[in-house]
Amino acid sequence: MSDTKPVPRGTAPEVLVRGGTTSGAHDRQRAESAHASELGRQRLARQERAAAAGPTLNEDGFQVAKLHSLKLMDSASPRLVLYYMNRDRTVKQECVSELVVAGTDELFTMVCPKCLERGEPMGQCQMKIHKSHRKFDLDVRKAGTVVELRDPDGVPFHVRICGTVSCDDIIACDTCGLFRVRIHDSKVWEV
Fold first, then answer.
1. For a disulfide at 12, which of 18, 29, 41, 168, Cβ 3.0-4.6 Å?
2. Which residues are within 8 A (CB) of 17 and not within 5 positions of it... i.e. 6 or more apart?
3. Residue 131: Cβ within 10 Å count
């Protein structure tokens, strides 16, 4: 009887054969593994080159874009500007929102300022308003209008909007429950 154990199918034995070399099956498995690793490294290198190139054409003629984060919004996304209003009809805050079409449902995002004031992380302050849950209307008469806003440092930037949004239903923040609003012509009014 031999002292060697049977090797399961699909794996190469790691035993040395006479003369101190490895078996042919083991050598083939190592070569296949090295080849797969090299293909993976080449693919990763192509992705890194494409990301570094920014929004240009790569060497293969394909349009590539530079990823800055894993958020949904990019420069081609349809956007809304929401104006958070004071009771005296002045604008308290402006918020850039994204309109997303997911299958047959539409949704837009907005931020709960009450959660921000409480120190919640930005991801917890985001509210997604689905058209299937809260009936909202998108008025596209102002689509293509460029709106000038200012970032927190006071630097102006421009946003091309896809229209204005109105929602007669009350929208409430699920995280804190303190923020309840209605939206009319992209103006957010607390109720």
1. 29
2. 23
3. 17
Whole-angstrom Cα distance, residue 146 to residue 66?
24
**Residues contacting residue 31 through CB under 8 Å, at least 6 positions apart:** none
- The token pair that represents 6 in the structure block: 């049977």
One-letter amino acid at 76 equals: A
**What pLDDT sits at residue 1?**
47
Greatest Cα pair distance, the chain, in angstroms, is 95
Report which of 75, 74, 94, 70 is spatially closest to residue 84, judged by C-alpha positions: 94
DSSP H helices, the chain, are 24-53, 113-117, 122-125
Question: Model's pTM, two decimal places?
Answer: 0.59
* Distance (Å, whole) CA 182 – CA 7: 69
Residue type, 51: A
CA–CA gap between residue 107 and residue 186 (Å, rounded): 14
Rg over alpha carbons for the chain, rounded to the nearest Å, is: 28
**Is 128:161 a contact under the CB 8 Å cutoff?**
no
Q: Where are the alpha helices (DSSP H) in 14-173?
A: 24-53, 113-117, 122-125
pLDDT digits (tens, 9 = 90+) for 26-85: 788 888 888 988 998 898 888 777 666 655 555 555 554 444 444 445 556 788 999 999
Query: Can you tell me the distance from the alpha carbon of 113 to that of 115, in angstroms, rounded to the nearest whole number?
Result: 5
